[in-house]
Amino acid sequence: MSGVAASGRHDVAEYFALAECGVISPDDHVELLDGLIVAMSPQAPLHAATVYHVEHLLLRKLAPHLLVRVQMPFVASATSAPEPDICVVSGPPQRYVDRHPSSAVLVVEVSDTTLIQDRITKASIYAAAAVPWYWIVNVREHCVECFTRPDAEARRYADLVRAAGATILPLPSLSTEIAADDLFPRTP
């Protein structure tokens, strides 16, 4: 394995090569975070329903030139290829036939059991990739954590706003406003 560093960390090229040759299968449910191949948790029904709900809300609200990708690779750096729950990227879709996106307008993670990882590890990865808007849809506390103003060099976001209820989420590329509560599915 030529892409493995002495520390046992992997780069993106090696990670995708492992998948292509079958060492990592689609059933493995893993992602590459800062050079480490990390297992992803199985989805609880509330997580899956929230991802579906957010996807369809954004599809209705976003400008037509933006694409909503669900749980697909995002090449954030040479050593990180997370699979965010939602990744909003510039189109057209043909742009991603032979490569995964390496820039995004918005990344959304729906979080309950992965809240610490989403707040620390993934926020650092997305800030380093200069993703301007990162939302954690926190199903545990029924709020949205909105990270903005990434400092790529410091690998952190300068601003964090916790939005709940009717608080409007900041995102300039939306055709209409979205309140924090809009991101949560309603139960019958």
Structure commentary:
The chain has 188 residues and is of the alpha+beta class. The protein has a single domain (42-183), classed as tt1808, chain A, CATH 3.90.1570.10. It is built from three helices and eight strands. The protein has helices at residues 12-20, 45-61, 115-128, and strands at residues 30-33, 36-39, 66-70, 86-90, 106-111, 133-138, 143-151, 156-163. The strands form two sheets. It has a six-stranded mixed sheet with strand order 3-4-5-6-7-8. It has a two-stranded antiparallel sheet with strand order 1-2. β6 and β7 (143-151) form a beta hairpin. The model is unreliable at 1-6 (pLDDT under 50).
Task: Describe what is shown at a glance.
The protein contains three helices and eight strands; from the N terminus they run αββαβββαβββ. By secondary structure, it is α+β, with helices and mostly antiparallel strands.
Residues in β-strands, percent? 25-35%
Biggest pleated-sheet summary: 6 strands, mixed
CATH fold label: tt1808, chain A
The tally of domains stands at 1
Number of strands: 8
CATH superfamily: tt1808, chain A
* Approximate shape: globular
Radius of gyration: 16 Å
What's the helix-strand series?
HEEHEEEHEEE
Q: Give the spatial strand order of the biggest sheet.
A: 3-4-5-6-7-8
Rounded mean pLDDT score = 90
Return residue spans where pLDDT drops below 50 for at least 5 consecutive residues. Answer: 1-6
Oligomer: single chain
Record the SSE blueprint.
Layout: H1 12-20, E1 30-33, E2 36-39, H2 45-61, E3 66-70, E4 86-90, E5 106-111, H3 115-128, E6 133-138, E7 143-151, E8 156-163
Parallel strand pairs: 5-6
Antiparallel strand pairs: 1-2, 3-4, 4-5, 6-7, 7-8
